[in-house]
Specification:
By secondary structure, this protein is of the alpha+beta class. It folds into 2 domains: 5-141, 2-Layer Sandwich (Fructose-1,6-Bisphosphatase, Chain A, domain 1); 150-259, D-Maltodextrin-Binding Protein, domain 2 (3-Layer(aba) Sandwich). It has helices at 5-26, 44-60, 91-95, 168-180, 190-198, 212-224, 252-259, and strands spanning 34-35, 41-42, 64-68, 78-89, 102-109, 112-119, 126-130, 135-137, 140-141, 154-157, 183-185, 204-208, 228-230, 243-247. The longest helix is centred in the N-terminal third of the chain and has 22 residues, at 5-26. The termini are far apart. 44% of the residues are buried. The structure holds D-MYO-inositol-1-phosphate and calcium ion (2 copies). One calcium ion binds at residues 46, 69, 86, 88-89, 91. D-MYO-inositol-1-phosphate binds next to strand 4 and helix 3.
């Protein structure tokens, strides 16, 4: 029997709201902050949020495969159905009490993302999408912007934690965009960056070295809102690729040219 994607979406939303409660309860009250790398933080809030999401999914769908950031590796189940989870996207913001972070939950069938959920626990904005059914913000349909020119565009990006290894290519791309666009933002949650492209607040987003859990939900939400998403060469994007460019489509090729050094 085919899986009911509305059931899947509702389970994901339930998990996301539970996580949002957990994250808010820890905000500003963190104990020890661990490091996964020199700049890569992990807090008890990341861990508790992930535990809650996995338990909520497991209760309803005990056999599904789960790929979640903090669990290290995937929790194996029926690989036909896989959940891809970032329990706290924007940990650096969270740890510094900057109120811009999210919970990101995606669901894939045989590797194709079918459901995407991104929730901002502070603003209460819930972005959702089911494949072929459009994208919504708090239940209302959203679309990408109509901006036609890179010179009129507001763009957003992010930098990987290991940027220090060789920061020049990131800086050159950043400078190219700074010269071409109206402005650039670096907000610190890739999942929300993609959702902001989806609802037309930003005209484009690019980043390198993201992980599947950073982009899985946001990519579907942006695509369903009309975004074009590729790698920097213009090839179709998949969540295992090391680079992503998501735009409203109109400015895509112009932005892409500036990313190719
Ligand atoms: C990070 C955020 C950030 C991006 C980093 C990601 P995390 O995720 O999405 O915006 O620039 O590259 O790793 O570590 O907060 O889940
Ligand atoms: Ca993340
Ligand atoms: Ca995370």
């Amino acid at each position: 029997m085919a899986i009911n994607l509305e059931d899947v979406k509702n389970t994901g939303i339930k998990a996301a709201y539970g996580s949002a409660d957990i994250l808010r309860s820890h905000l500003g009250r963190l104990g020890h902050i661990q490091k996964k790398g020199p700049k890569d933080l992990v807090t008890e809030a990341d861990i508790e949020s992930e535990k809650h999401i996995i338990e909520t999914i497991r209760k309803k769908f005990p056999d599904h495969d789960i790929l979640a950031e903090e669990s290290g590796s995937s929790i194996h189940g029926d690989a036909e159905y896989q959940w891809v989870i970032d329990p706290l996207d924007g940990t650096t913001n969270f740890a510094h009490q900057v109120p811009f972070f999210s919970v990101s939950i995606a669901f894939a069938v045989s590797g194709e993302i079918r459901v995407g959920i991104v929730l901002n626990p502070i603003s209460g904005e819930l972005f959702t999408a089911v494949k072929h059914n459009g994208a919504q913000l708090n239940g209302h349909t959203i679309n990408v912007s109509s901006c036609q020119s890179i010179s009129e565009s507001l763009l957003v990006t992010g930098f990987p934690y290991d940027v220090k290894q060789d920061s020049r290519p990131y800086m050159v791309r950043f400078e190219n965009m700074l010269n071409a666009a109206i402005g650039i933002r670096r907000l610190g949650s890739a999942a929300l960056d993609l959702c902001y492209v989806a609802c037309g607040r930003f005209d484009g987003f690019w980043e390198e070295h993201l992980h599947p859990w950073d982009t899985a939900a946001g990519v579907l939400i942006a695509e369903e809102a009309g975004a074009r998403i590729t790698d920097f060469l213009g090839n179709s994007y998949t969540i295992d690729k090391p680079e992503i460019l998501a735009t409203n489509g109109h400015i895509h090729d112009d932005v892409r040219k500036l990313l190719n050094l």
